[in-house]
Amino acid sequence: MSYGLLKGKKGLIFGALNEKSIAWKVAESAVAEGAQIVLTNTPVSMRLGTIDELAKRLNTVVIPADATKVEDLENLVQKGMEHLGGKFDFVLHSIGMSPNVRKGRTYDDLDYNFLQQTLDISAISFHKVIQVCRKADAINEWGSVVALSYIAAQRTLYGYNDMADAKAMLESIARSFGYIYGREKKVRINTISQSPTQTTAGGGIMGFDNLVDFADRMSPLGNADAQDCADYVITLFSDLSRKVTMQNLFHDGGYSSMGMSFRTMKVYNEGLEYRDVKDDKTHPKA
Ligand SMILES: NC(=O)c1ccc[n+]([C@@H]2O[C@H](COP(=O)([O-])OP(=O)(O)OC[C@H]3O[C@@H](n4cnc5c(N)ncnc54)[C@H](O)[C@@H]3O)[C@@H](O)[C@H]2O)c1
Q1: Does residue 21 surpass a pLDDT of 60?
Q2: Among 53, 54, 73, 94, which residue has the most ligand 1 atoms within 8 Å of its CB, making it the best to mutate?
Q3: What's the CATH number where 32 sits?
Q4: Of all protein residues, whose CA lies closest to atom 19 belonging to ligand 1?
Q5: pTM greater than 0.85
Q6: How far apart are CA 155 and CA 228, in angstroms?
Q7: In a domain, 266, yes or no
Q8: Which mutation among 68, 163, 199 tests ligand 1's pocket best, with the greatest number of atoms within 8 A of CB?
Q9: Does residue 209 lie in a domain region?
Q10: Is residue 2 one of the residues assigned to a domain?
Q11: Which residue segment(s) compose the domain that 150 sits in?
Q12: Which residue's C-alpha comes closest to atom 22 of ligand 1?
């Protein structure tokens, strides 16, 4: 159902790889709510994924950019505004990747070059996107910028690795830049801390299916899926949330306020398989 919440608004959306991507659902929902958008991703992801298909269906373009490269972002912002015929009202940063996770390097054996890349891609790119937009005066007053985070920024979760550090930094950038951009142009900047979600990036996390099951059992409302997330992002892009800024907003079915739930306890009561992972050589320690 559409409410026309973004009627007349223009937006820039990073991170649609394929139809599972959170950014894909946001792009579809933004257009359904009346927005005009421009899509972007890295040239490699454009080749590996199906973003062109999405652009065709939504009657828009994909402008390639590596979000870690300032010159790519400058080109993207200029071309994006040209295509839309004006400044952006909203920007979605839906980007994350850890070479340490990909290569199976545990948190107590990180490759530091990989760590730099994790931080650059998953957190510092958020700063770069905002800084480039601000210098080009590319976001209208009362515009809205959203990035996607995860509760591992505040709580330790087995296997989330250096992405936890990246998410902590991402949330900090939302606060630090939210102050500056809010003070000057009323631009609001927030992060949404989303449930584990079945996407390409999500699936790369160690033991992801178990994490999804655990979070679902712990959450009174169950996990929020990618479409639920898109719905929430739309409210933050809309004029109905104009005074919300510098926040990390949990969108997780209640997970972040739980300690133990009946459905999780049941797993133990029923005596389902329990192993001490210390003795299991297939489980890395970190
Ligand atoms: N899936 C989950 O469980 C989950 C939970 C909470 C938060 N998130 C966050 O949601 C966001 C989107 O991830 P997703 O789950 O939709 O997975 P996804 O794999 O569909 O999206 C990740 C995107 O990041 C893009 N990307 C990687 N490096 C880039 C770069 N240098 N420049 C520009 N783009 C780059 C990829 O091309 C891809 O489109 C990420 O920030 C992720 O950490 C995901």
Answers
A1: yes
A2: 94
A3: 3.40.50.720
A4: 201
A5: yes
A6: 23
A7: yes
A8: 199
A9: yes
A10: no
A11: 10-279
A12: 95
